[in-house]
Design a protein that fits this description.
Keywords: Carotenoid biosynthesis, Oxidoreductase. Helices cover 36% and strands 20% of the residues. With 495 residues, it is α/β, with parallel strands linked by helices. The strands form five sheets. A seven-stranded mixed beta sheet has the order 7-6-15-16-17-14-18. Helix 1 packs parallel to helix 10 and helix 11 packs antiparallel against helix 12. The longest helix is centred in the first third of the chain and has 24 residues. The two termini are 15 Å apart. Bound molecules: flavin-adenine dinucleotide (FAD).
């Protein structure tokens, strides 16, 4: 393989940055990844303490073929690097009225569960799946699977032909209501909008394709913990000759005569580059790294960030049989929960609580007889109005009290290890503007077009990859973003 000339420097070793690094290196480019933190992986990360292991970000992988495709592109077999598992049930749900629902991946069992809580909705479920499959069919090709730099590129004859199919003129909730009668199933299917940090009550019904993707292609876990995905990509990148520098924050992109020429390192020194790829959040990058970026930072600030999260890491003694690998404890009033988080930008009084107990699949993640609970509650983007340090002790008590009422009795007494992250921690750890988990929100039909394009608008040889650019946040999409930006860079280099 021929390694050519100046390197391409990637600012950030998140999954988007790693995917781009792997693809560029496979194409013979010299690549350097500069990551400010001590480990690769970005928001997909790891916390270990007192004998407990916690994945700190994603806990569910959808579209697993995207990972396989990345390894195949590098002429490797994914199975030689990591093992993907389907967890049954994908998720267990509890409602405040005592209803419980196991969302099985196996269709006959899933249908039985639907029949158990709402027999009338069985045919509606199949109609909904057919509807969302048509959305996926219309959207995947033009929007998810190829590079895309703006609205103009979407106006193709095929998109115009399929425009009616994408269901963008009503909300996720309006579409879900038109299919399901059961309030429980409505809440359950509305929840998929949260997979990209949006509210089901305002985000376009196009995002119902997320439920189709999970139901048709499964929800997956990486054996050993989700962080093993970052480990595997880091290993593949190293094998391909990518130079990874951790604990290496970049302080500036060097721009000369409208071209990105390299980066300045915060701890001193300069890396000249043939191109610079920003995996860090675009709004942060335009504010802090790119000279003259204020105008673009101001443009991005006009759009709503996706919401953030409050995370409790709990190591507990004993077993809580109610908990599956993934468990959700729903709120009694979903609309008012989203009104609080998205419109009023305050923590919800009655939050929906998600718990990942990876010890169910990986017993080594907790000492024998103990469990590791990653507890996630959606929280408003951090616009500075909330003093999280002051709020957290009471909010933590509130979350634990709700869990005790909804089936985890004795939880408070069982805690042996505990720490938490607020939206501000997420912001600081990853330089994520507002601590947003998924970049900009998708709370309008046009939100997708607000994101920074793969190619920077005013600086040549400067690109973006990851959740802040096309096609959006979440593991599979940021990996696809690595594919999209690579093809842009290679095209620009005349390859
Ligand atoms: C709590 C939580 C739960 C989630 N759950 C899921 C889930 O279940 N499924 C799913 O698919 N997705 C989930 N996500 C979203 C998913 O983690 C992200 O969409 C994805 O990991 C983002 O990858 P990225 O490459 O775009 O950016 P990031 O992961 O943000 O990586 C950017 C990297 O850039 C680095 N950086 C920033 N500034 C600099 C600088 N100046 N110099 C050097 N490096 C810098 C950061 O440290 C970071 O490592 C979740 C995220 C969180 C936080």
């Amino acid at each position: 393989m021929q390694i050519m000339g100046l390197p391409i420097v990637i600012v950030g070793g998140g999954l988007g940055g790693l995917a781009a690094a792997i693809r560029l290196a496979t194409q013979g480019r010299r690549v350097i990844v500069c990551e400010k933190n001590e480990r690769l992986g970005g928001k997909l990360n790891l916390h270990q303490a007192a004998g407990y292991t916690f994945d700190t970000g994603p806990s569910l992988l959808t579209m697993p073929w995207v990972v396989r495709d990345l390894f195949a592109f590098a002429q490797r077999r994914m199975e030689d690097y990591l093992c993907l598992e389907q967890i049954e049930p994908t998720c267990r749900y509890f409602w405040p009225d005592g209803t419980r629902f196991d969302a099985w991946q196996r269709l006959p069992q899933l249908v039985q569960e639907i029949e158990r809580i709402s027999p009338v909705d069985v045919p509606h479920f199949f109609q909904f799946m057919a509807h969302t499959a048509r959305i996926y069919d219309a959207v995947a090709g033009p929007f998810l699977l190829r590079p895309f730099d703006g609205l103009r590129e979407l106006i193709t004859p095929s998109m115009v032909r399929h425009a009616f199919r994408i269901d963008a003129l009503r909300s996720v909730d309006a579409a879900v209501r038109s299919f399901f009668r059961s309030p429980h199933l409505r809440q359950l299917f509305n929840r998929y909008a949260t997979y990209n940090g949006s509210s089901p009550y305002v985000s376009p019904a196009t995002f119902n394709l997320i439920s189709y993707i999970e139901l048709a292609e499964g929800g997956w876990y990486v054996h050993g913990g989700m962080y093993q995905l970052a480990v595997a990509l880091g290993r593949l990148a190293a094998e391909l000759g990518v130079e990874v520098r951790t604990e290496t924050p970049v302080s500036e992109v060097i721009v000369e005569k409208g071209y990105a020429r390299g980066v300045r390192l915060a701890h001193g020194g300069v890396l000249p580059a043939a191109a610079v790829v920003i995996n860090a959040d675009p709004q942060y990058a335009y504010t802090h790294l790119i000279p003259g970026g204020q105008r673009e930072a101001t443009r991005l600030a006009r759009f709503e960030p996706s919401y953030s999260g409050v995370v409790l890491f709990l190591g507990v003694e004993g077993d809580f049989p109610a908990l599956a690998h993934h468990t959700i404890f729903f709120s009694a009033d979903y609309p008012s929960e989203f009104r609080a988080i998205v419109q009023d930008r305050r923590p919800a009084l009655d939050p929906t609580i998600y718990i990942a107990a990876t010890c169910r699949s990986d017993p080594t993640h907790a000492p024998p007889g103990h469990m590791n609970l990653f507890v996630l509650v959606n929280a408003p983007a951090d616009d500075g109005r909330i003093d999280w340090e002051a709020v957290m002790p009471a909010y933590r008590d509130h979350i634990i009290a709700k869990l005790e009422v909804m089936g985890l009795s004795g939880l408070r007494q069982a805690i042996r290890y505990e720490s938490y992250w607020t939206p501000r921690d997420l912001a600081q750890r990853y330089n994520a503007a507002f601590g947003a988990i998924y970049g900009l929100s998708s709370n309008s039909p046009f939100a997708a077009f607000a994101r920074s394009p793969l190619r920077a608008r005013r600086v040549k040889q400067l690109y973006f990859v990851g959740g802040g650019t096309h096609p959006g946040g979440g593991i599979p999409l940021v990996l696809l973003s690595g594919k999209a930006v690579t093809s842009r860079i290679l095209a620009d280099q005349g390859a």
